[in-house]
Amino acid sequence: PHPSFRGRRALVTGAGKGIGRAVAVALSKAGARVTALSRTAADLESLVRECPGIEPLCLDLADWDATEAAVAAAGPFELLVNNAAVAVLQPFLEVTREALQRSLDVNFGAVLHVSQIVARQMIAQGVPGAIVNVSSQASQRALRDHTVYCSTKSALDMLSKVMAMELGPHKIRVNTVNPTVVMTDMGRINWSDPQKSAAMINRIPLGKFAEVDDVVNSILFLLSDKSAMTTGSSLMVDGGFLVS
Ligand code: NDP
Q1: How far is the CA of 86 from the centre of ligand 1 (A)?
Q2: Is 18:43 a contact under the CB 8 Å cutoff?
Q3: How high is the pLDDT of residue 200?
Q4: CA–CA separation, 170 vs 129, rounded Å?
């Protein structure tokens, strides 16, 4: 484990399933005091059973006011992983207002808002901090049926750069990880069709999708003091997709 995590307080959003859950477990095992935020209570209950040190926080991040109160009360934190997101795939001509609003609220608005709350507390305490936003290869490449998802992730990359600029003087680093497809629930719903997944794998130089651990390791690197001079950057975990 990274010595830089011992005793540090960490908030991980979307920690009920998939990548966020694995990040919460890894940080807890590395000695951090982890608060796991997610929407479905049963997921958090099973996470706490698996990893009893973790503090659960059950919340829908699309609810701005509930988020303000709950996250402020759970803090302060030195580490933040904005991982929660939704992927509603629709052809451009069929994008609905509901899908647009939900995706903007969760994938973009909640990252901005949670980061504001956490960064204000970091600054008030005068402690250095690290924030990792979970973006995607989809932030930098157009993908069919991904109008809203690509756009929210692209906005997230730019949000992260402006945050890095404004929060740097407060010793708060902000970076993104940008994975290719990972076969979590989200990945399975959108990439189980063998023809569709084969076409994507053919465009990835390493010839495979990413594993959850590939993403977790990159997030832990960007949270840790091993990346002390890195801020405003995006770490691709894409097997080379973006250079192909
Ligand atoms: P999953 O869908 O497997 O897990 C997402 C988690 O976020 C769930 O626990 C979900 O809870 C939670 N969540 C979603 N919306 C909210 C909300 N409004 N409030 C609170 N919690 C919420 O996704 P992944 O683990 O695959 O994805 C994690 C991150 O990685 C996302 O940012 C995603 O965009 C990104 N990513 C994923 C890729 C993939 O192929 N899987 C590829 C590239 C990036 P619930 O289920 O209860 O709603």
Answers
A1: 6
A2: no
A3: 97
A4: 8
Q: Is 84 in the pocket of ligand 1 (CB under 6 A)?
A: yes
Has the ipTM of the complex gone over 0.95? yes
Asked whether 22 lines ligand 1 (CB < 6 A), one says no
> Whose alpha carbon is nearest atom 36 of ligand 1?
136
Distance CA 72, CA 109 (A): 16
Atom of ligand 1 nearest to the CA of 179: 43
Query: Residue 165 is which amino acid?
Result: M
> Average model confidence (pLDDT) for the chain?
97
- Cβ–ligand 1 contact at 187 (below 6 Å): yes
Segment 166-170 shows an average pLDDT of 98
pLDDT at 121 exceeding the cut of 60 = yes
State the pLDDT confidence band at 4, using cuts at 50, 70 and 90.
confident
Amino acid found at 31: G
**Per-residue pLDDT at 120 exceeds 60:** yes
The pick from 12, 17, 209 for probing ligand 1's pocket by mutation, whose C-beta has the most ligand atoms within 8 angstroms, reads: 17
CA 159 distance to own-chain centroid: 13
CA distance 129 to 114: 14
CA of 31 to the centre of ligand 1 (A): 24
